[in-house]
Amino acid sequence: MPAALLRPRGPLAQTNLISTLLLSLCLHTGPVTGGIMKADEIQNGGGDTISHSLALVQRLEALLAQGNGSDVALRVQTVGAEQVKVIQAHSLMLSLQSPVFEELLLSRNGTTLVLLETAECAAVFDKFIRLVLKLPSSLDFVLNCKHTHTHRYLYCGEISLCLEQATYLHKLATKYRVQGLQQGVTQYMTQNLATNSPSGHVVEWYQYALQTGDVALRDSCLQYLSWNLSSVLQSGEWTTVSNDLLMTLLQRSDLILQSEMELFAALEAWINQNEPDALTAENALRAVRYAMMPPRELFRLQTQSPVLARYQESVRDLLYQSYQFHSASPLHMAKYFDVNCSLFMPRNYLSPAWGSPWVINNPMRDDRSTSFQTQLGPSGHDANKRVTWNALFSPRWLPLSMRPMYSEQGSTQPTRVDGGRLRIIITPATSSADFAGVSFQKTVVVMARKQGKMVVRHVYNFHQSTEETGDFLVDADLHRKMSEYLVDGSLHLHIVVKPLYQTLIATKK
Which uninterrupted H or E stretch holds 457? Predict the structure, then answer.
């Protein structure tokens, strides 16, 4: 057995190991390269400082690769597999980065630590351990999605990461409580939700986050799926959605998709592919908002959909209410029924009847305006009624809190000023008695190019002006040509108008 592995334990052992590591670093061949920081770059003053941090990181990596000063052998095994991976490491570095490793090292017998891992985690364990042994105290490390140059995270704080490795590295970081790496991989996964992969990965990451209790990752995945549902429905990933995730999505009103018909078609495909039990299928079909479909589409579904024919009894009441909704005046129907329930509430539909796309070139230059039409409401009674909307985009609008106070002669109109906020105002071109009993929620969907494809970057809901949200594109920094919110210098928006009927009078049936 090498002499480096035969070391006493306790404070003396740690002192000896530190000395060995320092000696190994000093004896490492190659010139010491670094830089000298000027005195005015040092916050606390006191003269110049010499920075050789990069050289030190490189030497730590070489120390790991060569096994110099190693005092522990990590034996990584998988149950039921003969293959064993042995990694020479340094107990001091492991203990500094992982409290779990610290406990294991204190209770070990001998110089070998046996670790049982799944086959997938064992496959990336050497990458994980090399990351842990060079992990800095802060989150100042790099996660790159590359297949080349496998960096060692624990020693040097860098790693090349691929989509298929993310969950297994996250599992190891969670198991051994390497918090910096755990947060870093979560950040990597959040930033790569839009990355193309052969079979998709967002649904898998959502299920993993749900199992491990990673709330931030779970919410990021759920938001991505909700905001980009049309593309998800058209991918092979859709059929892998679990029963619980399916119901979670179907119950949301913030789904962004072309129409409710698109959602029903995807649900029908999911049921045919997964063959769920009757209760699951019935609950899913009852979450469809049939009232948001025109009567002609409802008739077609009832006569042509095998899934609806099979479960029609479970949704008969919803179909009946939907036909009532389309045949009667919403104002009259609201006297007898609750029209504020989800059945009568639109989602964020991108079809022309509900709004319009808006591409704003050079958004920080001038005020811009556009006009578009929407259907007055989803009810068939309002199918032929149109509302014309005027939309104004201003890059420098004086916030409400900074406007002049009202005077006896009247109020001063808000003005555009340098340093003001971005703002969109959406108002009807004319007023009408048909608006009675209807409120209009406006939604601005902000698109951006990420990982080579267009995805939803942000969603803002308001009634008349984005000033109601208080944070409209506050972090967009549209002055920069390379802003993540711009696509070839343009701001890509989609305005959605959601008419919501209100219950005006409650009467006994």
Answer: strand 453-462
Query: Alpha-carbon distance 290 to 274, whole Å?
Result: 22
- Which numeric CATH code is attached to 348-399+415-501? 2.60.210
Tell me: the pLDDT tens digits for 383-405?
889 999 999 999 887 655 555 55
Sign, Cα dihedral of 249, 255, 260, 263: negative
In the structure encoding, which two tokens stand for residue 178, read together? 């390497």
Domain 3-9+53-191 has CATH 3.30.710.10: yes
Beta carbons of 509 and 426 less than 8 angstroms apart: no
For residue 445, the cross-strand partners are: 459, 494
Q: For the residues 432-461, what does the mean pLDDT come to?
A: 89
CB atoms within 10 A of CB 117: 20
First to last CA, the chain: 89
DSSP class per residue in 170-203: HHHHHHTT-HHHHHHHHHHHHHTTT---SS-SHH
Secondary structure (3-state) at 449? strand
User: What global pTM score does this model have?
Assistant: 0.79
Architecture of domain 229-327: Alpha Horseshoe (1.25)
Question: Considering just the CA atoms, what is the radius of gyration of the chain in Å?
Answer: 30
